[in-house]
Structure formats: structure tokens, C-alpha cells
Amino acid sequence: MGSEHDFDDSAALLEQVNQALENATPLRIQGSNSKAFLGCSVAGEVLDTRSHRGIVSYDPTELVITARGGTPLTELFEVLDAAQQMLPCEPPAFGENATVGGMIACGLSGPRRPWSGSVRDFILGTRIITGHGKHLRFGGEVMKNVAGYDLSRLMAGSYGSLGVVTEVSLKVLPKPRQTLSISLEMDAQRALQRLAEWGQQPLPITAACHDGQRLNLRLEGGEGSVAAAHDRLGGERLDASYWHDLNEHRLSFFDEDRPLWRLSLPPNTPRLPLPGVQLIDWAGAQRWLKSDAEATFIRSIVEQVGGHVTCYAPGLADSPFQPLPDALMRYHRNLKQQLDPRGLFNPGRLYAEL
Amino acid sequence: MNILYDERVDGVLPDVDKNALLQALQTQLPDLEILHQREALKPYECDGLSAYRTTPMLVVLPRHIEEVQGVLRLCHARQVPVVARGAGTGLSGGALPLEKGVLLVMARFNNILHIDPAARTARVQPGVRNLAISQAAAPFGLYYAPDPSSQIACSIGGNVAENAGGVHCLKYGLTVHNLLKVDILTVDGEHLALGSQALDSPGFDLLALFTGSEGMLGVITEVTVKLLPKPQTAKVLLAAFDSVEKAGRAVGDIIAAGIIPGGLEMMDNLAIRAAEDFIHAGYPVDAEAILLCELDGVEADVHDDCDRVRQVLQQAGATDVRQACDEAERVRFWAGRKNAFPAVGRLSPDYYCMDGTIPRRELPGVLQAIAALSAEYGLRVANVFHAGDGNMHPLILFDANQPGELDRAEALGGKILELCVAVGGSITGEHGVGREKINQMCAQFNSDELTVFHAVKAAFDPSGLLNPGKNIPTLHRCAEFGAMHVHMGQLPFPELERF
Predict the structure, then answer these.
(1) Distance, in angstroms, between B429 CA and closest chain A CA?
(2) Which one of A46, A296, A326, B467 has the lowest number of neighbouring Cβ atoms within 10 Å?
(3) What CATH number is attached to the domain comprising A57?
């Protein structure tokens, strides 16, 4: 392991946070800015994490890797690849230089998510620079650890608003021995029905996306189970690169001009009557919508079925993330106030109130 | 240092007029069942950590969520501490009552509200037993994966509060990985829904924060769990080794071969002999260590994996590898492991179960150090180990009727936990901190880290009325504890005043 760029720059990051505390200057935490289009824009002095990089430790037989926040995701994936292991949640990069810290802060997961779990599910421990200007350690490098509150998993998807993640330990797993992708022709309604049935059976499905005309599936496991599932389901072979293109929004669906919305739904939600075009991922639990409809309209439909909406078109919606109920927002504010009392970290990125 | 609540170091609790509180509860919640007489309170004075007992001031047994809300509002208005309790099977004293507090028993909320096979979810009340969820899901070919060994009795609310584990965590995760939504009431009785029916929710991941928070941040009123399709088949291999080191290395070899077993358990010689004597599982009593390796999934894959694992075990120096020939033998192999605690209990009047985790590679060194500590303290230790995920359960044998033995067992246990921290592990893998490991928290976290934990608590319960004294020690307690444990010439928390 070890690359020439490896460098522990945590002292400088800590120094910058302490300076900002002293001067009451808000900070805009950034890696490569690959996911800057998500959430509201932040006014503040840039805190660039990329100088603090490198894999700190990796023992494949322990199934744990520890990396600094500024480590490029590509480096993390290369190191895992070489040991025939993977981060099963398949975080999208949305840019060549995306960092490990950004992956944690945004908490986005890829096509395997309904079966493998999300980014937060693979977090074992973190080191965090806090709003009190301390560099602290939470969780650890072991699979089971229930000492204290789970600050580490809380960091996933908090968009840097609770602290600077300088280091993270992640659970990783061996790659499956066999992978096969197939494509079946059927309409969306039928696809959702079949996915609900198959979900109750021990089938080795690890990705399921319906593109409007076809249901695309990935089968992963041992040779026997994958072959048996293929025999049973049939379909045409599909190139495995499809899943990467889906994850990185490189399918032609995403080229369309209209704004992009992410719908997170209970998996067995029927097809929603929304204007625009839809792509069903996560076996129904995540749907991408290209639509000119108003945010409030989309949200009202999605809320009725117990889901929520994120606007992926920067600057379009006042609140890109679904507004929270009042009581829940109050506790979000309390937590932010306790952990970042001076409002230093990414103010307003997640919600204007935070 | 005593484990029971000590206002001197754990913080002063408000003085409560018991009769006035009782009267107020009776007036405002006429249907609420309240226990207030000494003999009625007795059964509630401890949880699964029965060595430590405190009689609660009052016990309330609500049947409706509105009553829980009423109790919380009233207690909040009167500044009365509240300790929530499920089935009371916890092993760390997380539901240990307070003399100055109300014990809120959630066990009567035992309805399974809805099983949705198409969405693969179960919506249940917090008092539903862990195993009851899998039983209710079984007709649909589904089950709830986390299986703490107390699963026939422990309730899902407690599982969430402790982030309970079990023997299948490496492959299927902990409680936190198998939840979709938890409904809670805050300290002043306000309802919050954390998580949702979808796979994620907007805002902070409060569902993750609340899981394992030991009743310190809110009271759980409803839980929605994920269900999984039952694996088609499960097979178990039993391997014997003439040294613990070889068994430990074999675990790493199995994983290096790209195989994630459903369960992977290790027992040392003392545990093997105790289990064999009790269950007659067919364990090799001369072995220094055995590994139980369960492979589950689709028939064809499991068959292949069994062959691979057998080879790995033989190459790792196993003296004997056996595969359970039928379901009856598989169940018998597991019965030995699942009854290891009571089996060890037959060797000794009392035993004390520890729950540390370590990086697996540290196992040989840690076991040697435990053996040395065992000799130093003059108490036998049997080792049972969730080898796949590094979670050790050393069982310390002692006799509480012998003066000083309980104290020695506690001290030895504390040393073992500090050893786990020293090699990069944790003082608790799945049993929780509760009261039991409150002092060892001072070894795992520094005062700044503990201060952040207190800040999290303050965001949800600023007056500290929910389960006071559990999970996170006060800095004052750590200062006193540190004063007794000068480590390598260095006093922990040197920045604190000593009282």
C-alpha cells in the first residue's frame, strides 16, 4: 500500500478549524467538489481536505480498511480491487477525483444498496474535527462496537455540517465469485410485481433497474446459485458496465434536459403518476425522475406514499432536501447547536436552519 | 468503584416526593397500572445483570402509548428520572432502576402490528420478542436476522436500545443494519419518527444515533424491521485444533478464501468440556479449540463452500473436521455453543460474562494475556468467541459466597476490557455499557470525546432525566476511576481537578 501522495495533514486542518473558531469564519468543507451540486451552496472559507490523504491501514483478512478523508475514491477502490475485495454499497463518485470524505459526508450508495446496505452501514469508526476544535476518535476498527453513541454513522449523509471527517474505517467484503447481468423485456408495473415476489425468495439478485422498457438485473454469488437463477429467469445478457453507468448517471436517461429528482420510496410503491420520465432503481426503492413539475407538487405525491424527494438540479428548489417536520427540525437544530455551536461547518448546505 | 448510582460522582438526582408523584399519576392516568409497594417492586430491581440491584421508586406498566406519553410529560414536569425497560434480559445493567426514579416497563406493548411480505418489513411494538418476529414472518418464508442468544425472551425495543448482535452478525449485520424506522417519544413526550418505510430519510441519520443509545435519548414506542428471505439451506462444519493460535489463523484463512460464513464461532478447551458435559454435542474434549463454521444460502453455493472451507481448515492444521450429517446433528453442534454460558455455569457457583471486541489478528496475544490474568487473580476463565467478528465472551468463574471473589471477578473483568481497548478493540461488542462498563468507558474515550457524548445527550435530554448514570460516565467519575488506575506512570485526565 502507500502512495507517494500519502500525507497526514490533520494538524493543518485542525489549525484551520481553530483559526476559523477564533475569527468566527464559517468553513466550506470540500474535497474535489464532485458533489457540490447537491444541497444549497455554502458561503465560507474553503477547507480543502485533499492534502490529508492515504490508506492508513488495510488487512484484507480483518475485512477493514482505514483511509484519510482526502484519499481519492479511485485509490481506495484500486487497493480493494487488488485484494479481490469491495465496498459493497458502491458509492457513486460523480467525478474523477471524488474523495473518501465526500463519500461519507454525502452518504450516497449505488445499485447494490437494497441488498448490501448503505455507506453508513459499512462505517465502523471515524476521526472527526469537531466544532469545539478538537480532533477526536469515535467507533473503531472492529465489527461490533456499542460503546458510546454512534457518532461515526451519524456523519454519513450529514453533508459536513457536524464536523470534518479526517479518517474513516470501513467494513469491506470479498467480491462475489460470479457475476452475471441480464435484461428482461417487461413493463414497469410488471417489473415491480416480479421484484416484490423475487424479493421474498433466496435469489442472488444484487441490482435491479427498470429503464421504461426493460428490467435489468445483476446476479452475484457462487457459480451454482448464479447459474440456477439465470436458468430460471432467462433474459438476454447485459454488459456489467451498465451498473457503473447507472451509478454515475451516464445512461442516456440522465442526458435529458429537464431537472433531475431523486425519489426515495417504500420499495413496493406502484408506479407514481408524475409528469416527465422515470427510471426505477433499487428494485423500486429509488426512482429517478426527469420532470419540469414544481418541487411542492412532486413532494406532495411522494409524501403520500411515505417517501421523500431530493432535487439534483442545483439552485432549482429552495430546499433541495425534503423539508423536515417541525419537531424533527428542532432536534436537528439542537444537535447542530451542541456539536457545532459556532455554526462553523457548511452552514446551510443541508438546510437553511442548520 | 461501586457500580450502583453514586450521586457523588454520577450527578445529584432531584429529590422526589414519592406519594405526591404516585397521586399525580393515579389522578392523571387512572387506568395506568402502577406498582409502589415494596414486595411488588422487588422483581424489577435488576435486569439480566443480577449481581446489581436497586429498588425503583415506582414501576409503571402502561398498555397504551398515550399512557407512556402521560408518564413522560408528568415526570418531565416534576423532574423525575425515568428508566425504560423491555424484557429485562440485558447483561450490562442498562435497565437497572434508580431509587429516585420511575421504571417504565414497555413489555406489555407486545403486538405485531403488520407484516408486509412484499416490502419485506415487520412493524411491531417495542415489547415484541425478537424470536416472535421471525416466527410471525416464517409463513412468508421470511425472518428477522439479528439473533442475540436471549432471542426467545429479549424484546425488540431493548434490541434497538442496545444495538443487539448475535452469532450471525458478520454476514447479516447488527440491529442497526436491520432497521427501517423507529418511533420514539422524547423526554417530554413528543413523538418523533426516525427513519421511514423507504431505505433512507432526509436530514441527519438519527436512526443510527438512537440505535444503541441505551434509553438515554428517548423511549422507543414502535419499530419497523427489515425481513430477509430464509436461506435455502445451512450446513455446519466442526473443526478441532491442538492450539488456539491455529484456530485463530484458520478464521483469517477462511475469510482470505473469499468466504463469509453465516456463523463462525470458537470455543476454548474449558468451554468445550463444559458444553460437552452438559449437552453431549459430540465435541472433541481433548481439543484446545474448536471452530464451528456455518455456511448458509443457496444449495449449490453452500455445497461448494463447504468443500472449500474443509480444505482451508485442513491446511490450517485442524486435527479433525466434521460436517453435521443431518439437521439433527447441525442443531446439536449449535446447541453446545448456544448453551455454553449455562454449561460453564455448572462448573462454578457463579460466572461473569464479558463482552469485549478485538481485531481478530490480536486473538492469540489476548488469549495469552487473559490466561496470565486468570492465574494472577486465581479465577478460571472460559473463552467463547464470535470469531468472525472479533467479539469475545470470556466467562470468569467465581463463587459469590467466598468473600472477595466477586470483587476479584469484577477487577479481572475490568482488566480484560482494558486489554481489548489497548489492542484497538472495544469494551463492548453487543451487551452495551449500561452501568456495568461505565468505568471502562474512561479507558476507551478521553475527556473530550466523553464531552461530545454529553453534548449529544443534551441535544435530546438537556435535564438528563432519561436513564441517568448509564452509558456515558461523568468526567468526575473518570477522574476518580483514573486516580485508581495510574497507567504506565500517567494519570488519565490530568487536566481535571481531583476531588
Answers:
(1) 4
(2) A326
(3) 3.30.465.10
